[in-house]
Design a protein that fits this description.
This protein has 353 residues and is mainly beta. The chain is 0% helix and 44% strand. The relative contact order is 0.17.
């Protein structure tokens, strides 16, 4: 398809996204032209091995990907790569220390300040779930071991960062889980994880979370073969930190806002934030998803009307990087196919159908 950069085209379109209009574009176009919103630009392929189930985090404007699974039964990884979002290139960095259990898939990653963290996951070589936690310092290009995750070993947990703390919860350890713990890297050894009570949502693995204005939004995943449909907000500054929001399916006969909520639920999706809106893309739900949805926290509404589908192959177990103004997706798998392509969504551009 022909990709159209709006600011360089003579196009008139008012793009109303979740009740908020984007800037009016100039001049006019033929009414016969048909457009979808958002352009997926392919960026530099990931330089490492194709994989799914890697962990990722963002520090400043740099994205990091660590570990994962290549599709070969015994090939679990512990390598670390940095993606330079401005220069569009990859650099291999120091791998996680070569200790038992550091090679893993289905771990989770987050950053606090200038450092990144990887915790939990699964090690097929030793056939075990993992709870170890590692801190990466890009200034020294080195790793340091931190306290094991206090909730116990697991895979497919989700994580997020608010302020000076990381939060990790849910996942699977032969049972579906819903507990949450807060991580403080400055605390003394033995006390870096503290339990966070109050989450009333569904147990899940393969969920995702994104943070907007110091509040986390938790959604998607799978529990006992069912794709979960609850949406929760976590605001640690509130007197009641956990809030249940509107479900992400069409289940309210009294309102029509959710009439099109037919494909949000899924597992092993990725999410990122652009301009204070949450973007949900990829994952699987009876098939591999390519549609993307946008969440507006000011209205508690989702939208995907006339959005350009993800232009890579549908996939599960990808990773995403988010700088707050840009969002990237890379790696993942579809059945026996494993990927190394990298994509950036330009949400304010139009693509001609």
């Amino acid at each position: 398809m022909w990709k159209i950069k709006v600011l360089k085209m003579n196009v008139i379109k008012c793009f109303f996204l979740l009740g908020t209009s984007l800037p009016l574009l100039s001049s006019c176009t033929d009414d016969s032209d048909s457009y979808t919103y958002g352009v997926w630009n392919e960026r530099s392929d990931f330089d490492g091995k194709t994989r799914s189930g890697a962990a990722s985090f963002t520090i400043g404007t740099q994205g990091y990907i660590c570990g994962g699974y290549t599709g070969k039964k015994t090939e679990y990884l512990n390598d670390l790569w940095e993606y330079n979002t401005s220069g569009n290139y990859w650099t291999q960095l120091a791998s996680m220390p070569d200790e038992a259990g550091t090679c893993r898939r289905a771990a989770t990653g987050f950053s606090i300040g200038s450092k990144g963290y990887i915790t939990t996951g699964y090690d097929w070589v030793d056939i075990k779930y993992l709870a170890d936690t590692w801190e990466y310092d890009p200034a020294a290009n080195s790793w340091a071991k931190k306290d094991d995750y206090a909730g116990g070993a697991r895979q497919y947990a989700l994580s997020f960062t608010i302020g000076n703390y990381g939060y990790v919860g849910t996942g699977y350890d032969d049972n579906y889980l819903k507990d949450f713990y807060r991580f403080d890297p400055t605390a003394a050894a033995g006390s870096q994880w503290q339990k966070i009570d109050g989450f009333g949502g569904t147990k899940r693995m393969g969920g995702t979370a994104f943070v907007i204005n110091d509040a986390a939004y938790i959604c998607t995943g799978i529990n006992n073969g069912t794709y979960v449909n609850d949406l929760w907000k976590f605001d640690p500054s509130a007197s009641e930190p956990w809030t249940s929001l509107r479900k992400i399916i069409d289940d309210d006969d009294d309102n029509d806002f959710d009439d099109d909520y037919t494909t949000i639920t899924r597992a092993h999706a990725v999410s990122f934030v652009i301009d204070n809106k949450g973007y949900l893309v990829t994952g699987e739900a009876g098939g591999y998803r390519t549609d993307y949805w946008v969440y507006d926290p000011t209205t508690d509404l989702w939208n995907n009307e006339d959005f350009t589908p993800f232009e890579g192959s549908g996939r599960s177990g990808a990773v995403a990087f988010s700088t707050g103004t840009r969002g990237f997706v890379t790696t993942g798998a579809s059945s026996s196919y494993y990927f190394d392509d990298t994509w950036e969504l330009l949400p304010y551009e139009l693509e001609e159908e």
